[in-house]
Structure formats: structure tokens, C-alpha cells
Amino acid sequence: MRLSDLQAITHEDLLITRLGPRTVETPLQELLGNRQESVHYVTETDRVLVDDTLGMAKNRGVDAADLPAFNPGGPRRQLFFDPSEVTAAIVTCGGLCPGLNNVIRALVLHLRHAYGCRDVLGFRNGYQGLADGSEPLRLTPDLVRDIHTRGGTILGTSRGSQDPATMIDTLVAHKVNALFVVGGDGTLRGAQMLAAEAARRGLPIAVVGVPKTIDNDIPWIDHSFGFQTAYARAAESIQAAHTEASSGVNGIGLVKLMGRHSGFIAAHATLVAQGVDFTLIPEVPFTLDGLLDGVRKKLANQGHAVVVVAEGAGQDLLPPSTATDPSGNRKLGDIGAFLREQLTEGLSDLPLSLRYIDPGYAIRSVPANAFDAVYCTRLAQAATHAAMAGFTSVMVGSRRGRFINLPIALATATSNHVDPHGDLWMAVLETTGQPLSL
Ligand SMILES: Nc1ncnc2c1ncn2[C@@H]1O[C@H](COP(=O)(O)OP(=O)(O)O)[C@@H](O)[C@H]1O
Ligand SMILES: O=P(O)(O)OC[C@H]1O[C@](O)(COP(=O)(O)O)[C@@H](O)[C@@H]1O
Ligand SMILES: [Mg+2]
């Protein structure tokens, strides 16, 4: 996210689409009864500021009341839907991510127990299950009781496009009036199309997104769920590479980590594991000569070197490719294998012991850690509140620790990257000691 994205944002960009007036009293009335406004609770009539520095706020040159601000997440006293008439549906889409089952479980329990919704259906295999005529799973509290202890998704997932009209036909056939889409940028684009198709037909169906992806590339929010678990797991591979490298003669530990266009996993895992000498991310270009030279110096000075490379880094060094996956995501060249080859060849004058580790899918197929488990539960609750209020084409997430509702259109307009001028990258540079540019 660039400062210019922040500065360009207007009040209109932050408006949430509503299905209609809220006239139904919430069944959570007793719970909400004596809530006191505090620094930890934003009332439903208040707003969460976009800017959080004096400089940014001042730059807008407007009165405080006109500063752009997000709609706060959380329960509303008056609902659009009568929960007893709500059939909800859930789909999980795109790549696996720790916490998918936590989100499913929390959605089901919150929808059924807190709000008393009629039914919750789980469509299988992502958007595919909304288009292939397959029967959805009836998600009861009993069925989901223990699923949060497992990785993956009990609903299955997929990549690949489906016709929005067919998907809406399916929702109508099953009397679904609230759809929860759990996915990343691609899924959210799909959700936007679904909400638009429902609106075109005048159907009051709430479409609510829950931000999933280990890549952490969804903008405006603190992080997507699953990201922290993934980088914690990735750090274990770095530690293994460091142990191997520091125990060998001229040991090189090379670790390739996921992160298609954003280097957040590589950056954070570096800070967790420590002992990394070079972290290579898509946002910061490097040259082969610069890397070889740096590694050679490290071997001479400390006897070993550890290199962490995000899968999207250094793509300009590889043969160009236009291939895409079924969702239209560009297929990347294998930078890990390439660097293994180049380091071996480029340093062939030295007796090397190079160990290459690609933990790949192992970092995202695991259950959520404690942090993500908490976040998943809170996201699911925020998503349920948004749907019951009749908000649509909306995504929930935490921003600077506060839960917000934001238009999906805003979440898909840009993506989140490691800022080469930001504090995170500075912390990585300070930790690795690598030069500003390689
Ligand atoms: N621009 C788009 N419009 C509509 N649907 C999309 C779009 N991009 C992706 N999708 C659909 O969203 C689903 C998940 O997308 P994908 O990019 O694989 O994962 P993620 O949501 O994790 O980024 C797929 O079924 C894909 O076809
Ligand atoms: O499962 P696939 O298709 O091999 O995809 C791998 C990609 O999925 C990810 O794990 C996450 O992607 P999404 O969350 O956007 O689906 C990327 O880090 C990785 O590049
Ligand atoms: Mg994606």
C-alpha cells in the first residue's frame, strides 16, 4: 500500500452497500444492552479513521469530521434480516490457508447459536460447488465441532472461473440469503461479481468476504488470516537451513518460501528465525552478481551463508512466461531451483555444501496457530454481524487492531506489498545486514 493510495481515498470509496433498511431487532440485544463506549469499542454510529498520523490527516486539509473513515465492524442493534428466515452458505476458495476450518466452525456456531439462523450450507470445492449442481453439505454445530484442530478445509477448495449467473441460480434454488466467501484477492473479485449479479436481479443476498491468504497481499487490513501460522512454520525451515549451513564447510542454506507477489512471508520468517544473511523478495530487485558477491563475502567472513528467497523474487532473471493457473494467476518461474544452480556454478571454485529447502505446501496445510485461531473466530463473528445487518459486497478485517467493514471493491483495487521504504523492510535489512541493494 502506497501513501498515494491512502491519500487518494475518499468518503465514497468507503461506503458499504446495504440491502435495505434495518428494522429487525437483534437477538443479541441482551448482550449489547449495557455496552459502554471505550477505547476498545467503536459504537456503530462512529467511524474508524483511515489516517493514523497527524501528517496524513493534516495533509487532507479538511475538518476532522470530514476525514475519510471506515465503517466499524461489529453487531448492529437493528438488523436487515430476520435471522429465523436466513439460510447462510459458505464457500472456501483458492489456495489452502491455516484457519479455514476455524472460520467455517465459527461462522456456523455464530450463525446458528448467537443469531438463530435457519440453516448453514457448505458448498464444496470453492466456486465450483456453486456451479456444478452438486449437493451442499448441511453444516450443523455437531458436524463442525472439532474441525478447528485440522488444517485444510472440510469444504474443499478450487481455482478456476465459474459463471456468476449460474452461481446465483444455485443460491436462489437453495434459498440462500447470506453467502460467506472465504478467500483471497481472486475470490473477492468473484464475490464482487456475485453481489453485482444479485443486485442486477434485485435479490436481497448479502455477500460477505473473509480475507484468507498466507501471502498477506490483501490491502487495507493488518493481515489476512493464516499468514502468521504460515510464516511461523516457514521459520522452521530457515532454522534447519541455518543449522545445516553453519555445520558444513562453506555451507550455504537456501530456502524458497511462498509469496507470489508479496514478500511478507519471507520478511517475517527471516525476523522469526534470525541467522539469515540475504532475504530476497519480489518488491526489491537484485542481480545475480550482487548475490554471488555477497554470498562469497559471507562465506569468507563467517564460513556459511543463509539465503531466503520468496517465490516471486527475481522473476526478471528467469525466462519470461505467460502461463497462468486456472484462476488466471501468472505461473512463476522456479527461482529456488535457479538460485541453487547459479550459486553452485558461480561459486564452483570453492568447496561448497549447499542445502536447498523448499517447504512449499507444508507451510499452509497446517492447523492455525493460537494467534490465527483467535483472528479467525473474530473475523467470522464480524462477518456474521455484517451479513445480518444487510451489508453486501463487503469484506471484514482488522485494521490497526480495530475490526472494520470495507467495500470489496476497495480491497480488490490494490494489493498489499512489502514497502521497500517501510519499517518492516528496514527491520529485515537491519537483521540480515545485507546491503540496501544487491
Ligand atoms: N477476476 C475474477 N473475477 C471473478 N472470479 C475470479 C477472479 N479471479 C479469480 N476468481 C475466482 O476466485 C477463485 C479463487 O481465486 P484464486 O486467485 O485462485 O485464489 P485467491 O482467492 O486465494 O486469490 C477461483 O475460483 C477464481 O476463478
Ligand atoms: O496451490 P497452488 O495453485 O500451487 O498455488 C500456490 C500459490 O498459492 C499461495 O499459497 C497462496 O495463494 P492464494 O491464497 O492467493 O490462493 C501462494 O503463496 C502460492 O504461490
Ligand atoms: Mg490470490
UniProtKB/TrEMBL annotation:
Entry keyword Magnesium: yes
Family: Belongs to the phosphofructokinase type A (PFKA) family.
Cofactor: Mg(2+)
Keywords linked to the UniProt accession: ATP-binding, Glycolysis, Kinase, Magnesium, Metal-binding, Nucleotide-binding, Transferase
Pfam annotation, one family: PFK
Reaction it catalyzes: beta-D-fructose 6-phosphate + ATP = beta-D-fructose 1,6-bisphosphate + ADP + H(+)
Recorded superkingdom: Bacteria
Protein name: ATP-dependent 6-phosphofructokinase
